[in-house]
Amino acid sequence: MRQETREQLLDLLAQKKASTTQEIADAISLSRSATSLYLNELLDGNEIQKSGTKPVYWSIVTPDYNEAGDVFLQYIGSEGSAKKAIEKCKAAVLYPPLGLPLLLHGASGVGKSFLAQLIFDYLHEKKYNGAQNFFVFNCADYANNPELLSSILFGHIKGAFTGAEKEKKGLLAQADNGVLFLDEVHRLSHENQEKLFQFMDTGKFRPVGEEAELIHSNVRLLFATTEIPEEVLLPTFYRRISVIIDLPTFHERPIFERIELVKYLFERESKRIKKSITISNDIFSALATQELSGNIGSLANQVRMACADALRISPNSQELVVGENKQPVIQINYPPAPTLVEDTHLFVKKITPLLQITDFVKLKEELRSFDSRYLENTVTLINDSLALNIKTSIQKQNRCVIDNELMTKEALETVCRLLQVLKGELSSQKIEEKMYLFSKQYPRTLLLVTNLTKNVPSEVQNFVAFFLGILLIGKVSEEIRYQALLVAHGNATASSIQAVANKMCGDYVFDAINMPLSSSARDIVAEVNDWLSERDTSEGVIMLVDMGSLTQLYKSLKPQILGELLVINNLTTSYALEIGQQLVNGNLFYEIAKKAERDFVTNVQYFEGFSVEKNVIIASISGRDVAKKIKAICEKYFNPDIKLIVLNFSELVNTLERAYSEEGYLKETAAILTTSYLDNKTPVTNINLIDVLDEDAENQLNMQLKNLIHPSSIPLLVNEFIHFFSKEGLSEKLEFLNPDVIIRQVEDVVGKCEKRFSLQLNAKMKFNLMMHIALMVERTILGAEDYPVPEDINQLSINSKPFYQNVQTIFYTLEQFYKIKISTWELYIIYEILIG
């Protein structure tokens, strides 16, 4: 079966309930016989299952969580945070002949006794030796009477001590062929610990008072303690415990497990009182996020008391209401509905390859398609407390920042479904790596989602911010070049204006800082500096403040800002709207500053001049994206103290006009890099990068970029530009070859030609040769016409080296890759180019 057909069948069955062979055949446009053959092949691989006889129904295999031996799935977190611990438990208890001694360590109430019971149930259901009975003893009950405790454990003979009127079997004897669980084992006296480890070594013990006879018993031993084992147990006893399982406290558990635990405890109470329970999500969330000294034990008491209090208030109601019965709520039904186990493993398997996509626009489309295809009608967010909290928190923050809930509504639903499916499958390190890449391409979008998610639970904050950012690509303009901030005294003064201004501008333009009324200028500077540290200030910063010393603010903040700073000492909605509209329209910093100075009835302070730092301007008539790519190349080679500024070509023209009439405006600009002719009447050096293809390009650049780049870096820079312009040019000329791939291949070919024939090609020659070879490959693939060679190619040589034999070797890899044979005529043209 073809992989494509296999995936098609699995996708179809994943979306539907059980289907007949004919229904499936019709859906994938195959004959019934062929479909039946493929379905049986999947059945043999245990990937699907069938039911019924006439007709037969096919469906996806879902795991059976009730099968014997899988009792550990009752332990919340068995597939999450406790997965490794439970694997250790299984390995320890299955070790022949009677397992390894195992110690459960954790704070009071974390579930040690429950896990011990599950270990016994696991052994009992698997029918392993030594699992007939389960005995539990808390050593703390008789810790103050070690003699009595010793008698309870090991038994005693008649007359062993005063009151021992008859012989008594101890727990070790009673637990023969069973499991003995000793809780709070650290409360055993040293003497009893010694007796116990001797039994662990030999399987034999003496009852209290017995002098000669040893009793043998086959006992599986489980221990538990709340203390640090190596500090409270005898070293000799501690060394004999082979496996130690550390159980986390309730608040250390992942948030998904904490929520599941709270829900389980309410379900338990629902069964106890035989009533459905409606819980306010505020109360439910508070229970899931608190830190409790008694952990799950204390949590269970809180849940029971909450239910008891609600029952006291409404003893005759059909449904118990915990907290206020207003949305959002969590609903626990009684009698409980059958639990449908969603096979999220299949979803995880399908979504994992998507997360390798580095083209974020493509990733956005793939995620939306995946959600609508698989999750939207399968994964429900009803009763999902975490999803409710995330959506509530983000939409509340949305109203404060951009006041456009519709913008994030659909994306939030998708993010919450992805979170429910993936949970801990995507490591925090991977998310941070992806967020770093995302920040380089969509910095303003990331700033917005970081702002929106700041009150989301920290465990899932990065996950939500990253996926929300992906799904909001295109909703936030990345062309707004300057950072803009509103600062005002009062609890919500600045943020209120921020919400209105951003909403009216139709974009995320402003951030806001609300300062207490008692704040000084120094306090404002500290807050603003924190804000600046998280943003790229290289283009410039605009601040509107409600009060304070302009001079102090300017002098204190300017050193932290790479670009220009404009401070307007008046914050009103109308001023914010005016500035915001100019930012959205792409007005230059100078234009915004001059207009503010002229139109606003307030004090304005800004820096005169294009930039306070030594800089190089980059612009391309082909667009800002090309200029950004040129900047990325330059960043590798220019001195780090040189600021690289990208302008739209029209902005560059306007800047040059102003610099021509205003002396000193570009006094810090060392050079202008473009990709076309520029009418530049200023003294600033202008470099047309297309000229790097000329013969004397390296010498020219050495002169023009003196003190901006180290001379040894010039050849590397030239080569990168040749690569860049070649790919850009080829992308327009090639019909179906991938420019990225073919450029790498022809670079390798040109390099081999230089080496094989002892040539040193100049930049323009390399460019011409690369372009020719790439187009030659495509011509050959398309079946280009062949021509006779005007001379014997076997007799041709370059620098005394046979041309034909060598060039065939050079092009062999390329021919094999594209399954072509390059004609003698094409190779002859290569010869003509190489000899000039």
Automatic annotation (TrEMBL):
Chain ranges of the PTS EIIA type-4 domain? 481-604
Transferase listed as a keyword? yes
UniProt-listed PANTHER family = PSP OPERON TRANSCRIPTIONAL ACTIVATOR, TRANSCRIPTIONAL REGULATORY PROTEIN
SMART domains in alphabetical order: AAA
Q: Pfam families, per this entry?
A: EIIA-man, PRD, Sigma54_activat
Q: Which UniProt keywords apply?
A: ATP-binding, DNA-binding, Nucleotide-binding, Transferase
Q: Where is the Sigma-54 factor interaction domain?
A: 75-308
> By what name is this protein known?
DNA translocase FtsK
Q: Which residues form the PRD domain?
A: 737-836
Task: Please give the superkingdom of this protein's source.
Answer: Bacteria
Positions the record marks as coiled coil are none
